[in-house]
Design brief:
- It is a single chain.
- This protein has 375 residues and is mostly helical.
- It contains 14 helices and 2 strands.
- It has a two-stranded antiparallel sheet.
- Helix 1 packs antiparallel against helix 5, helix 1 crosses helix 13 and helix 3 packs parallel to helix 5.
- The radius of gyration is 22 Å and the shape is globular.
- It is a multi-pass membrane protein.
- It is found in: Cell membrane.
- It comes from Corynebacterium singulare.
- Keywords: Cell membrane, Membrane, Sugar transport, Transmembrane, Transmembrane helix, Transport.
- This is PTS sugar transporter subunit IIC.
Length: 375
Amino acid sequence: MSTQPPEKLEQKPADSPDASETSSVEHLTPGSFTMKVLNGISIAVVVSLVPQALLGELAKALLPYWDGAATVLTLTGLAASLLPVMIGILVAIEFTLTPIQTAAVGIASFCGSGVATTNPDGGFLLKGTGLVINSGLTAAMAVGLLLLIGGRLKNYSILLLSTIVTLVVGTIGWVVTYPIVKIFTVWLGGLVNGATTLQPIVMGVVLAVLFAVMIVSPVSTVGIATAIFMEGVASGTANLGVVAASFTLLAAGWRANGFATSILHVLGSPKVQMANMLSKPVTFLPVICTAAIVGGVGGAFGISGTPISAGFGISGLMGPLAALNYEGWGWTTSNVLIILFVYVALPLALGLLFSWLFEKVLRLTKSEYYALNFE
């Protein structure tokens, strides 16, 4: 999940003939355009999926004992199904579009997501979160079209803008790109999940390391996991990679950051270290070593999860709860002890070990490299 602040686009003077344009196309590069789209997707994923990730697994566990858990599941499920709309809106906000333009992008993103299917009896059926990749792609196309239109519609914007964007970009997203993206994402998700089933230890190592690196990069781990429908052991070991990064960064920067800031890596997100680690790549070494071992052990135990839990780590107990509630597991004493071992004891012990090794023995890192200052 990316935490970079949105880059403000240069505004035209209010008395300019094109004052309604929110930005100039020439100020955008392919890289900055892509980054804004990714930032919007990342924020949308967190906003829409965190309620379900925080409460969904807990509500499932409480469902046999509390009727209100069904309401929790319904409401958090609705929030998750609104992800495509949130993607469109938050991508538009990254480009500082007007309210009308922002709403149009939200509609287009929803149309291209596939989250809604027509009901033969009338109306629509909402299911899941849709295709995250195609939602983001449709939102990007909608923004591109709006930047090209600019202020040319003038006073007719409120009448024509949403219609043009819905019919043009919505149609492309729904009819053209959705079938292609769906085939690709299902294939990629099946490849990752299938390979992990065949080689849980090897793929556990690979996925844990990948997600440990991605969690401290601009890439959204949650977005990737939900986009390719990671589940089962693939999701569980990817989730353990995020956990490994959390505990290792807690240990590595303990002396420089103190208790309150260090615990943020576990209770919040390791992504707060992104600037430090990208500026000093050597800081990845203890994280990668911890993630490789934890991921391999998780694969051996068959730690599993859902597409939503994969990228969140231990924050909100999402990973552990998803693992315990997964089919074939359950809240037995032995399972709880396994979860405590792989989610807390092992990553913390390895984080301390590799932090000490790379700092005191190999002298490649320093605690100061991980120092955070929020003032």
